[in-house]
Amino acid sequence: MSPPTDRSRMRTFLKSLSTRHEPPVDTVANLKAGFAAILGMAIVGKLAAMTGLPLLLAPLGATAGLLFGQPSSPLSQPINVMGGYLIGTIVCEAAFLAFPGDWLAAAVAVGVTIVLMRGLRVTHSPAAALPILGFGRGLHGIELFVVIFIGCVVLIALAMVIHNIPPKRDYPHRVE
What is the reported pTM? Predict the structure, then answer.
């Protein structure tokens, strides 16, 4: 057998870029996920308008994508969403106390958040964005915790309702 050529390695590499890792989705379930995300973010947006709280945050959009588009993912389970955001909030605040006003706080907090979420087995990747949000918007402490908590509760509650509408999805996963 001859060794692979640069051309064959390039073909293999290009093929790997086009490989789909997700199974095909049912059209009705896909449309339901999109509608649920619209509804969830609309509810959060309406609450933001009514309360004056900055509830429409980019990480919550990513959370909606996971909750409604990938409800069977471990990253979408309520313990992961709430636990990941709690860790992200605490680490964000600690980093900004340690490095006041410094961009390094955001970098350190992202890494520490990932390590703690993985170690505690409550990974929710959008929560790793909280330090960047805190640095960019100056959203910290109790206010950051409150707005994330409200957004998460709304989205998780809606996910529990939506996934019981046909086509039904098992959400949250139940341990038997």
Answer: 0.88
Angle 144-33-123 from CA coordinates, rounded to 5°: 45
Task: Tell me how far apart the alpha carbons of residues 70 and 130 are, in angstroms, rounded to a whole number.
Answer: 21
Retrieve residue 110's tokens. Answer: 């992202």
Per the domain annotation, does 5 fall within a domain?
no
Q: Where are the beta strands (DSSP E) in 45-114?
A: none
- Answer yes or no: is pLDDT of 173 > 90: no
pLDDT confidence bin for 7, thresholds 50/70/90: confident
Distance CA 80, CA 75 (A): 6
- Residues 6 or more apart whose Cβ sits within 8 Å of residue 169: 29, 71, 72, 163
Per the structure, the complete domain to which residue 104 belongs is given by: 28-162
* 119 within some domain: yes
Mean pLDDT along residues 136-162: 92
- Whole-angstrom distance, CA of residue 61 vs CA of residue 79: 18
